[in-house]
Amino acid sequence: MKNGLYCSAGYNWFSIGSEGRVSTCNALIYRADSYLGNIIYDDIKLRSDEIGFRCPNQECLQVCDRHWARKKVYKNDVELDYQEIINLEPYSSKKRAVSILFAPTWKCNYSCKYCTLPTKETYPDIPDVCDQFTAEQWIEAFSRFFDTNGIDGGIWHTNGGEPLYYNGIEKLFTFFSQKNFKIALTSNISADVFKKIVMAAPPESFGTINCSLHPTDKNFRWELYKSRVELLKSFNYPVSVNFVGHPDQLMLASMYADWCKSIEVNFALIPMVGTFDGINFPTVEHYPTPLKNIIKKYSNDSLSDVNKFIQGERVG
For the chain, how big is the Rg over CA atoms in Å? Predict the structure, then answer.
């Protein structure tokens, strides 16, 4: 056993893009050597060894990859560290449960300046296709994938792009609900949520609906966003507000957090580190004190998360 970080990506955790390519995890979707095949065209047989994939990056920093795949660290054939899946409830009473991150489209009606959606310019290896498959084609492909591998449920995460603008997304919600999957949706909810969600699958089919809040985008409409969060809540859907902590909109966080508290909806601020508009914030501590205080007030879960790995070792 070679030293380093191993995980269950490619066994019970995958990332699937709108072109159909199945990658072992979300961090490796731009690496050609991480593809298991194309779910539309190929009969993909998954690995039989659960934690046998040695991470080529030897790091795990993305929330989805860190929380939905098991991790082990080996040195000289000795297991030094183990991380369990963050929430095992959706896997209970199932013989072969998986967690899938699926982007039915890379298109979005927003144009947030901090967005990292893949484009042909930024990632030349990305196929120059989008939305070429119908919901019926996806359902057929997923059905074949499940039958081939004996998959009987788990979690189906869907984002994008903006998934609610994919034509037929409601058919996929219905399909995965019937296949014993908990649906985890991330959306800016600017589309018709009654038609796309409420009429498609019941509240108990959803593990969470993360309503992404982008107040500085030119297409953002506060009254529409507000009404749709409250509509979903009124139907007992598990909604939460995900506020993107870009420096340009951090000072607005308190206002939206207060509104969430008033309607008893969870508010989560995801802090951004890196270079923005020429200003570098390598860590939260590098932010000016007023912005840093906001981040620390509303980002306790992400700041206290100790499930990150760098150079094969746990950090945090």
Answer: 20
